[in-house]
Design goal:
Blueprint lengths: L2 E5 L6 H9 L17 E6 L5 H8 L4 E2 L2 E6 L14 H9 L3 E7 L15 H31 L4 H18 L14 H7 L7 E6 L12 H14 L2 E5 L1 H7 L4 H10 L6 H12 L2 E7 L4 E7 L4 H8 L1 H5 L1 E8 H7 L2 H6 L4 E3 L9 E7 L2
Helix pairs in contact: 1-8, 4-5
């Protein structure tokens, strides 16, 4: 299972958000730096409004959503790349995740200590980016030393890697993350082997106060983060209130919805964050539906029908014959598989078919 790591400076609301995401109290949330040391790990269900109608069509009461794993990682401070705070441990934990959710404090509160002494969300982002880039610069320089030694022996792969690193190192040295460094398809394997921290896809979560949730568009801190992320990091942002979401996690669904309406908000920020993280990880969903259950299955973007079948069972992939497939919207409009078949909307897809998000599938196989 792919993992998203929740990171940020101390006291920005990481652990509070993690508790809201996982609907637990696994992570200690306190007003002092490094209250989280070892990562907290939680499996989170991915909200998907398509499951309920699909279950209704299949005449089942059992709904099984997709899931994604989140890690709550210790707070980072300036100098982490040289071991400050919990730097070395923090960086090692980031290496273990596939994407980063960076929580950025966008609320004023004199009772909640800020490690820099003042609220400046863009400066906070730059602090973390700098530490990740510095760690990557050290990694790249070590890799360059090795590649240059091997290249002297006419090793073609080493020469290609040295040429790549000769372009990457100045990019990192200028303070830019690897995520914004262009590279060719042929160089993708070099990038993968380097395990660069600043290469990981990143989503920024703007943590606002309860009073600002409904008017977050007017929050100058959110606007600053949105502008910076779009122009400097080619990254997206979402707005959440970790404190509100933590409180919502304690309420029944109906009461939580009513509470959000009282705040002038239509939906949970956590739901939007989970869905955004799911897509950030390159994950997509297809469905199976029958009298036993309606289930969302997780695949990677670009997976073929046999690969999707293998998520259910390796025998399905090994003996794949074809996949009876209908788009979710088409099935919903028809109201049943029988009606979809009558209209010619159910397709027989083969081994080369790339599964689309929302496909409803039935696999034929022989082993």
């Amino acid at each position: 299972m792919l993992r998203a790591g929740i990171v940020g400076l101390p006291n920005v609301g990481k652990s509070t958000l993690f508790n809201a995401l996982t609907r637990t109290r696994k992570a200690e949330a306190a007003n002092y730096p490094f209250c989280t040391i070892e990562p907290n790990v939680g499996i989170v269900t991915v909200p998907d409004e398509r499951l309920v109608p699909l279950a209704r069509i299949a005449k089942t009461s059992v709904l099984i959503p997709a899931t994604v794993e989140f890690l709550d990682i210790a707070g980072l401070v300036a100098g982490a790349s040289t071991g400050e705070g919990l730097g070395n441990r923090f960086l090692s934990h980031i290496r273990e995740v596939d994407a980063i959710i960076e929580v950025v404090r966008c609320f004023e509160d004199k009772d909640v200590h800020h490690v820099a002494g003042k609220l400046d969300p863009v400066a906070d982002i730059e602090t973390i980016t700098t530490e990740l880039v510095l760690a990557d610069l050290e990694t790249a320089q070590k890799a360059m030393d090795k590649a240059e030694r091997l290249a002297k022996g006419q090793n073609k792969e080493a020469r290609a890697e040295a040429a790549f690193l000769a372009r990457l190192i100045p990019h990192l040295d200028s303070g830019k993350p690897a995520l914004t460094f262009p590279y060719s398809e042929d160089e993708r394997e070099i990038v993968r082997k380097l395990f660069l921290l600043s290469q990981k896809p990143t989503l920024f979560a703007c943590n606002v106060a309860e009073a600002d949730v409904a008017t977050s568009a007017a929050n100058p801190h959110v606007a600053a983060v949105a502008s910076y992320c779009a122009t400097h990091l080619s990254a997206e942002h979402v707005v959440i209130s970790a404190q509100i979401e933590s409180e919502l996690a304690e309420l029944p669904e109906a009461e939580a919805a009513e509470y959000l309406r009282s705040l002038g908000v239509e939906g949970s920020g956590v739901g939007a964050l989970i869905r955004a993280a799911y897509h950030l990880l390159g994950l997509r969903t297809y469905f199976t539906a029958g009298e036993k259950e309606a289930k969302a299955w997780t695949i990677h973007q670009g997976d073929t029908a046999p690969q999707a079948a293998g998520v259910i069972h390796t025998d399905f992939e090994r003996g794949f014959i074809k996949a009876e497939t209908v788009a979710y919207d088409a099935l919903l409009e028809c109201g049943s598989m029988a009606a979809a078949r009558e209209k010619g909307l159910v397709r027989q897809e083969g081994k080369d078919y790339v599964v689309a998000d929302g496909d409803v599938m039935l696999f034929k196989f022989n082993v």
